[in-house]
Amino acid sequence: MKYVDVKENLNSIISMVENAEEYVVLVSPYSNLEGWDKFKNAINKATKSGVKVDYYVRVGDGYTGIEGIDVNLFEVPELHAKMFYSEKDALISSGNLANNPDINWVCILQTEQEKNELREFFNNHIKPVASKYEG
Length: 135
Hints:
- The model has no long low-confidence stretch (mean pLDDT 94).
- Helices cover 28% and strands 27% of the residues.
- By secondary structure, the protein is of the alpha/beta class.
- It is built from three helices and ten strands.
- Strands 1-9-7-6-2-4-5-10 form an eight-stranded mixed sheet, with helices on both faces. The chain has a two-stranded parallel ribbon with strand order 3-8.
């Protein structure tokens, strides 16, 4: 596991989306994507190229600024985890997906074991209680 420089936190998440070829999973209880066009554009470009993008937010809370992005949106009760992964890369974070200068950490999971443990956590604890957003 490797910590990302605080100044590169947001860019590391964008790079993960841009490098994906099959799928992206974004888990962030609260989101504020207003003004974060670089991230939104990366998501839309990925989906246009055939990448499946699933976005998980906390029920009733995670929708600010998500208009105009092409994702499968899911709601999860009591969600607090923040994780972002694709078939290639995986990151965990203390921060929600928000375009702001808050001081948070982002860690890149480097080994296949770390990535698989993250996916296993998601599949065992988040995905089973998620429901498709019908907003």
